[in-house]
Design a protein that fits this description.
Beta-Lactamase, alpha+beta, 113 residues, 42% helix, 29% strand, 5 strands, 5-stranded antiparallel sheet
Amino acid sequence: MLAEFNSRYGASMSAIVSRSGVPIAWVTPQGTPVENLAALSATLLGASEVIYSGVSKPPPNRVVVESGDGVLVVAGLGQKAFVVAMFQSSGPENFEGIEKISAAIMDVLKGPG
């Protein structure tokens, strides 16, 4: 699923990670320190949730970090996991792709009917 997602939406890497920062599944370029990607992504999502815990609004379901080298998107998959992906540029297709892969992963996590 992740390889197809990367190909279809132009992600250079993607992973499913536990909320504690443990990589579950990933498709990344060879040599990518997936443990670092997972831990740092978990920190970003967790920090955003802590920041919002004192506000009357619900916490964000995704965090987006943009830089000159690309766009990192971290999106929650319920209370136990999240998906993280890196894109070369920002655009609405990134969020469409994240929504679609999130729904597909959630279907797999739910199991048979």
